[in-house]
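To: structure desk
From: M.T.
Subject: fold request, one chain
Message: Could you run this one when you get a chance? Sequence is below, nothing fancy, just the single chain.
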Amino acid sequence: MATRSKRHLKIGYVLDDGLDKPDGVQQYILSVGEWMRHKGHDVHYLVGETKRDDLINVHSLSRNIGVRFNGGNRLTIPLPTNTRKLREFLHTEQFDVLHVQVPYSPMMGARVIQAASKKVAVVGTFHIAPYSGLVALGTRALGIWTRSSLKRFDAMLSVSSTAAEFARRTFKLESKVLPNTVDYGWFHKARTFPAYKDKKLTILFLGRLVPRKGCRELLAAVGELSQRERVPTFRVVICGRGPEEPQLKRFVAKLGLEDAVEFKGFVSEQDKPRYYASADIAVFPSSGGESFGIVLLEAMASGKAAVLAGDNPGYSSVLADKPELLFDPHDPHALADLLEKYLRDTKLRQQTKRWGAAYSKNFDVDVVGTKLLRVYRQALHKHRRQ
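Reply: Done. Structure tokens follow.
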């Protein structure tokens, strides 16, 4: 086996789910993982069943089945991973650090941790916040089920103070907050779609079309807004798919907003930055279940959109310095008032855009990745001294 430079690490990112969908946890590990690779580290993804073939060093360690979780999120959970093959794989690869995404399944994530060599440092990142009491109860039960493997961690992180508090209540874990990350340059350099270079102002919604994401409340606010006088001409662009899509389209027709609302369907990762760059106002009316607000930072990083967000713990942790950008996600009338304010006031929109562009730089992958690498080295040093 070749000897690695002491400066370079072999890192395995462990995720029970697959990499086939661009959800928050997948974005997180791919963002920091590819940053680590560009810094010269040997990066591998130890994941559940996945079909992606555009990434290197992806190891599918289980078969998975699909479930819904936490207010409409779709994820897959692994069937039991073969322990013998897992031990052989880990023995061959000889990782320095395993970075496990938490919560994880006893069927895969826990088995990876327990099969790891004693020389390997194990770091965790806790990602979720609850949308319901049932989710909290289920997460607490999962924490009990995986308790023996939790003792193996050398460092535990959470993506926000909200996630850290949930980790404390459910998994009995103390963790340090290291936020989620965004590739600032990728979003900031995006160009506006030609179709939106006109005198109309563009209000953007991007997210899953499930109740907790609040698209219906946004449309109700837009319906009220359309009846008000002297509101600048605007359009609403809805990006995303989900089970609510047929009902939302019927709701738009009922409100008589067909000419003002565009449903764009699923948006690729390549096109997503361009939609943010085409918006004057980006609205995220989620009522809860958000551990962080990565979509807020992506929109801010474009430098084109003023960002307004539902007042839930995850989003409010991102906008703690700008609470005036938060609104009650259950109150379409309040959202209509806020939208009218930002549609009318060009100077306010521009100030908010500039603030967001500057603020989101703090979450750039280069900033967060540097801090995460320091955590890896400290965990490895601590572990090998024991």
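Reply (cont.): The longest strand covers residues 10-15. Let me know if you need anything else for the meeting.
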